[in-house]
Amino acid sequence: MERKDFAFNKGSKKVSLFLESLKAMGRGSRSFFSCAAIVWATFFFAPITLAQVPTGTSSGASYPQRPVKIIVPFAPSGPNDLIARIMAQKLGDWSGRAFVVENRGGAGGTIGVDAGLKAPADGYTLIMGGSSNLAVAPSFYKKLPYDSLRDLAFISNCAFVPYVVVVNPRVPAKNIRELVRIAKTRSGFLSYGSSGTGSMSSLAVELMNATMATQITHVPYKGTVPALTDVMTGQIDLMAADFATVASLAQSGRLRMLAAAGSKRTHAAPELPTVAESGYPGYAVDAWFGLVSSIKTAPDILSKLTQAVRQIVQSPEVRSRFEQLGYDPIGNTAHEFEAMVRADIEKFARVIQAAGIQPIP
Q1: Nearest one of 186, 177, 185, 219 to 202, comparing CA atoms
Q2: HSE-up of residue 122 (Cα within 13 Å, Cβ side)
Q3: What pLDDT is attached to residue 247?
Q4: What is the torsion angle, in degrees rounded to the nearest 10, for the CA atoms of residue 198, residue 199, residue 202 and residue 206?
């Protein structure tokens, strides 16, 4: 604050009244003078005291001062939940304050995101968002209670969860090109399972249909496990599923992996080519999970969290832990994370439209 905020202006009305009061009180008793002087001094200096209280100052330096909640918009034990719990533990170590995971599942993960955005935007409620509820949901729901690009502040994307295309061993295809040839030769003959319409497992194959001009028939299930069970028994032919779930099944010969569905090969199976590398450039379905908050959160808090999350994800200990789970660490900047979400929103909007999927009211 500048010196002029504290200077006495002898010509001001307030100072004149104050000085006249002192003269008048001087003619009275000592006790009256003392009491009146205190009252007038309080009246006069109160604005100066209030003026010294900083407004709009940064709160990031002392953040966090109490426990922080991380809302996971899905049930426990899934990739979203596991990544969130690893990050919660390490953020707690970093800050000296508890980061507590709260599962709020439902409606494809949109209920948890909405709940997080309705909490006070003070940095003490974070959301472990994912590709399904941040990038797919805008085209899958007619009345989504939030706008991913308008309402969210992006902190850092934590990890990719690699998806791979798997088939029943009786399907005579050893790679994606052979699978596409079969699909085109016998249109509508092949079928694929998913954990539900609009899920990443369904959109991955629908993107194949759109990219490769195939017509692989969709059979939706209520979950990944029953769909994979029917792939193994031959009730349906193929599926796109996360690598961690199918790795052991492929090793035992109950499934055959054809390609990685993401934009790059997964570290857990570096010998497995991507669909794009198999002759279909531009194809990529990346399932990811990252921390977001309300756009109204103070920028200095967001910046502090981004720096912390990036350091944690890129640490040898966390990278190793993610890789053991079959996940690929990311730890990107807030700007990079937002650009990824923006691109995926556009991509999945095209896929949903091409597949003829009607948005949920």
Answers
A1: 219
A2: 11
A3: 95
A4: 50
d(CA 28, CA 40): 15
Tens digits of residue pLDDT in 338-358? 999 999 999 999 999 999 999
Q: Which structural domains are found in the chain, ordered by start?
A: 10-43 (no CATH), 68-161+288-354 (3.40.190.150), 163-260 (3.40.190.10)
The tens digit of pLDDT for each residue in 213-247 reads 999 999 999 889 999 999 999 999 999 999 999 99
- pTM, two decimals, is 0.80
